[in-house]
From TrEMBL:
Pfam families: Glyco_transf_8 (PF01501). This is Hexosyltransferase. Signal peptide: none annotated. Its EC number is 2.4.1.-. InterPro entries: Glyco_trans_8, Glycosyltrans_8_dom-fam, Nucleotide-diphossugar_trans. The lineage of its organism: Eukaryota, Viridiplantae, Streptophyta, Embryophyta, Tracheophyta. It is an enzyme of class 2 (transferase). It comes from Salix viminalis (Common osier). GO terms for cellular component: Golgi apparatus.
Length: 370
């Protein structure tokens, strides 16, 4: 069964193909002869994750039969994209969240999958379900044609992937009862209890919260054409405080305020400007900066130790920033699983490795999704 929803001119699918999509939940994992290993993509194998259970002080969950209702107010909601290219990173990210959570069964994942990914959403959902048998999750299918005509070329082809823009549409895709969500990129690992980030306050009517970096040269994210046009550059001078750089790979989002303020439409407006006049070079980040920089709830830097993948061209090794760490983020060109497989890892890549569930005894080939 497929449900269609039309919202403000954009069409999305929320797939409810039982039992593979929608809520991937089983209380007790069924183990066959290949116990401990999951192979949904031919030769592309993942070990089954340990069973993570709630502690005594965790809330009792509201269920619909066997499934946890996404409308349960006690849940922590996390949204991530899910595709074949970054699948290994996504699996590691989920594993890290569960491993360090005090109430892992109280976390609900919303995976955004492309309609025409090399691995179909059905196959991806089956893999998640098999790797994490007790995980509460739902797979939302993202129609790439909703955004494809708004995407302009970037300095790195990977930044042009339509799924990079899926975060713009979370207010449309997620259930209306979901009023807050943490968005995470697929190249992160969490080494702290995610509930600490979930409970962060968004004060003064702010829509998103993220670590800010005000020492960064903000001007480099936009072209000379942008800065020479007072109408466009005025987007920052009218901000309530000095605009600062923030990374969109880790955000706490108030979806009620997002929907009420039509922030998806505000971001799309700047993307339309970019299609006519080139005002930036970096994919999906600059439109977010244009709309939110200067009005972001500043989170502790420990929640996004970003840049571990190096720059967007060479992907050279970088060290951790000074201070405590709750989340590691391999933003940039270099990804830890690629460098580890190539036997050319950076030191920080070994911090990602314990969460990797991939079994690397053979090369991956896609099974038919039929």
């Amino acid at each position: 069964m497929v449900h269609f929803r039309l919202h403000a001119g954009v069409l999305f699918f929320t797939v409810v193909l039982f039992p593979l999509l929608c809520f991937g939940i089983r209380s007790i994992p069924s183990r066959g002869r290949n116990s401990g290993a999951v192979e949904v993509l031919n030769g592309f194998r993942f070990a089954e994750a340990p069973e993570y259970r709630n502690g005594r002080d965790c809330p009792v969950l509201r269920t619909n039969g066997r499934s946890v209702s996404p409308c349960d107010p006690s849940l922590v909601h996390i949204a991530m994209t899910l595709d074949f290219e970054y699948l290994r990173g996504s699996i590691a990210a989920v594993h890290s969240v569960l491993k360090h959570a005090t109430c892992p069964e109280s976390i609900f994942f919303h995976f955004i999958a492309a309609e025409f990914d090399p691995a179909s959403p059905r196959v991806l959902a089956q893999l998640v379900r098999s790797t994490f048998p007790s995980l509460n999750f739902k797979v939302h299918i993202f129609r790439e044609d909703a955004v494809i005509n708004l995407i302009s070329s970037s300095i790195r082809q990977a930044l042009e992937n339509p799924l990079n823009y899926a975060r713009n549409y979370l207010g449309d895709m997620l259930d209306l009862c979901v009023d807050r969500v943490i968005y995470l990129d697929s190249d992160v690992v969490v080494v702290d209890d995610i509930h600490k980030l979930w409970t962060a306050t968004l004060s003064g009517g702010r829509v998103i919260g993220a670590p800010e970096y005000c020492h960064t040269n903000f001007t480099k994210y936009f072209t000379d054409v942008f800065w020479s046009d007072p109408d466009m550059s005025g987007a920052f001078t009218s901000a309530r405080r000095k605009p600062c750089y923030f990374n969109t790979g880790v955000m706490v989002m108030d979806l009620v305020r997002w929907r009420e303020g039509n922030y998806r439409g505000r971001i799309e407006k700047w993307m339309e400007v970019q299609r006519k006049t080139r005002i930036y070079e970096l994919g999906s980040l600059p439109p977010f900066l244009l709309v939110f920089a200067g009005d972001v709830e500043a989170m502790d830097h420990r929640w996004n130790q970003h840049g571990l993948g190096g720059d967007n061209v060479r992907g050279t090794c970088r060290s951790l920033h000074p201070g405590p760490v709750s989340l590691l983020h391999w933003s940039g060109k270099g990804k830890p699983w690629v460098r580890l497989d190539a036997k050319k890892p950076c030191k920080v890549d070994h911090l990602w490795e314990p969460y990797d569930l991939y079994i690397s005894n053979s090369k991956g080939h896609l099974l038919s999704s039929q």
